[in-house]
Amino acid sequence: MKILMLGWEFPPHISGGLGTACQGIVKGLGKQPDTKVIFVVPKVFGDEKAKNTVFVGANKFVEKFSTVLNRKVRILLPQEGTSNESFSLDGNNLIYVETASMLHPYITAEEIEKILIKKHIDPKIVKFNSEGSLVVTDKKGKEREIKLSFQDFQALEVKTEQKQETKKFEFTGKYTSNLYTETGMFAKVAKKIAEKFDFDVIHAHDWLTYEAGVAIKEASGKPLVVHVHATEYDRSGGKVNERVFNVEKHGMQEADKVITVSNLTKEIVVEKYKIPEEKITTVYNAVDFKTTPRKKYKKIPGEKVITFLGRITYQKGPEYFLRAAYKVLQKVKNVRFVMAGNGDMYREMIRMAAHLKIADRFHFTDFLDKEEVKHLFSISDAYVMPSVSEPFGITPLEAVKSGVPVIISNQSGVAEILESAVKIDYWDVNSMADAIYALIKYPALGKFFRRKAKQQVKEMKWEKSAANLNEIYHDVVISAKDEWKDVKMDVGCCPRENTNNQLTNPKTEKDENDMSEL
To answer: What does the alpha-carbon distance between residue 250 and residue 203 come to, in Å, rounded to a whole number?
Structure first.
């Protein structure tokens, strides 16, 4: 089985749990017989490693100007004060063509005039509206936008150096303000990358790669599996971004199979995205975390350390953790609370700790790398995950492997499978504080949870998750072949089956980074 896998990040270069989950899945698949993975990410750093896996970075591929120009665009005037003026024919205006890449060509007014005439539109009646789009007034007095395509510009006799201009699109591979542009370009470049490889199934992780997965499916005819690690309902706290929601829904609709990381997420996909339940399968995450001996690092004798680790954003419930800390500190003084991570609520939480006058007992570490996380777990007496909406939550499993008892919210997917944990509702600050207090005051209770949970986590292996995924791959591939047989009977044709078992496409022996054919 050859899997073309699409992700947004991969360790050691990660921003959250998505990369950790992808690494675990790839490692698990690497132990499956006759299984190979081509993992495509926006940017490769060269130190990504996994057995039976080839890593391909979209940033290594060059997009030619003529390839980029293939979709509808709007026109913008760079000059101020000209947006409502009639279309100028004086030859001095340069028209800015907005694209989805780093390429920003300028077209002269005369060239726009040629395009309009070819479309049988009188340039004299054309003007720009307030948004910078070309419009004409129809017979009913309404403005009608003129749609121009890149093919229109390509048909012009423009300067050779402009037409042949090439430029590398630099993907950041991060969650930046340029994210929509990057996901759109990733879909375009990934589609070209896919042409270089043979594969049986496409596996797209989270909404960032769904567009790419759908584009590759349409081009290759291969079945698509989308993996829902989180939904916009989890991330937004109820303020859903319609653009992201639509990408998620479209990806799920076009997929042959939808994988969710918990039944909690599955319910959201069914209820909010209207995806048929029979199309969805839950495959739980696992844990692959090498721990640090608890005696390696020392802390102040007699003091307890309670840890929060994750993005400091609404979804993770940092405010509830801080309020619970305040309540605990009213009863005991020999305890320190640590909030590790960063996010849009980081400064707000610092101000809140100062306002509650617990800043001397509440510490902020900012983002921690893997080794620093191990250090923190080795001195922690309890780990708290008060997430408002957590599709799964791998960090509690890492804490358990490190010998730390955990308190998790009922609103998390991991609560479905981690039996030996204290479970509370995220909003119930009193119960959270009581649970922390109990683990501090009664060491035997913490010892019980550590022992029982550690035994359970031993069974949570990525090989098991990968085996479940492998079954799904085979099912969708067989279903796709059956569908093709039905089509073949109707049209009387049969495709030549590919029996090549190599990662590279037999059509070309060029390196996967060579995109000269573009």
So the answer is: 15
Domains of the chain by range and CATH? 2-43+172-282 (3.40.50.2000), 65-168 (no CATH), 304-457 (3.40.50.2000)
Neighbours of 235 (CB within 10 A): 18
Taking the C-alpha atoms of residue 236 and residue 241, their distance in angstroms, rounded to an integer, is: 7
Q: What are phi and psi of 156, to 5 degrees?
A: -75, 155
10 Å Cβ neighbour count for 464?
A: 14
How deeply is 264 buried, as exposed, middle or buried, from its count of CB atoms within 10 A (0-12, 13-18, 19+)? Answer: buried
> Cα–Cα distance between 466 and 222 in angstroms, integer?
20
Residue type, 395: T
Q: Are 174 and 42 in contact (CB under 8 A)?
A: no
Q: Model-level pTM? A: 0.72
Cα–Cα distance, 23 to 39 (Å, whole number): 10
Parallel, antiparallel or unpaired: strands 94-97 and 75-76: antiparallel
List, as own/partner pairs, every contact residues 298-301 make where C-beta atoms lie below 8 angstroms and the sequence separation is at least 24, other chains included.
Answer: 298/379, 299/379
Percent of the chain residues past pLDDT 90, beyond the cut: 51
Helices (H), ranges, 106-159: 109-118, 150-154
Between CA 41 and CA 58 the distance in angstroms is 6
CA 177 to chain CA centroid, nearest Å: 14
DSSP-derived 3-state class of residue 283 = coil
CA gap 222, 478 in Å, rounded: 11
Cα separation of the two ends of the chain: 28
H and E: helices and strands count for the chain: 17, 23
419 vs 503: CA distance, rounded Å: 41
Q: Are 377 and 346 in contact (CB under 8 A)?
A: no
* Burial class, 263, CB count within 10 angstroms (exposed 0-12 / middle 13-18 / buried 19+): middle
Contact 52, 37 (CB under 8 A): yes
For the four alpha carbons of 395, 397, 400 and 406, in that order, the dihedral sign comes to: positive
Distance between alpha carbon 57 and the CA centroid of its chain, in Å?
Answer: 15
* Residue 110 token pair: 């005369």
Residue type, 283: V
Give the whole-angstrom CA distance, residue 302 versus residue 349: 27
| Residue pair 316/424 in contact by the 8 Å Cβ criterion | no
pLDDT at 67: 39
Q: What is the pLDDT of residues 184-198, one digit of tens each?
A: 888 888 888 898 899
CA–CA dist 145, 414 (Å, integer): 50
Amino acid at 198: D
Q: Of 386, 438, 431, 394, which is closest to residue 414 (Cα–Cα)? A: 394
Q: Give me the pLDDT at residue 179, please.
A: 81
Question: Is the predicted pLDDT of residue 149 greater than 70, yes or no?
Answer: no
Which DSSP helix (H) or strand (E) runs through 322?
A: helix 318-329
Judge whether 446 and 399 are in contact, CB under 8 Å.
no
Decide the pairing of beta strands 406-409 and 382-385.
parallel
Q: Take residue 246 and report the two structure tokens written for it.
A: 């639509």
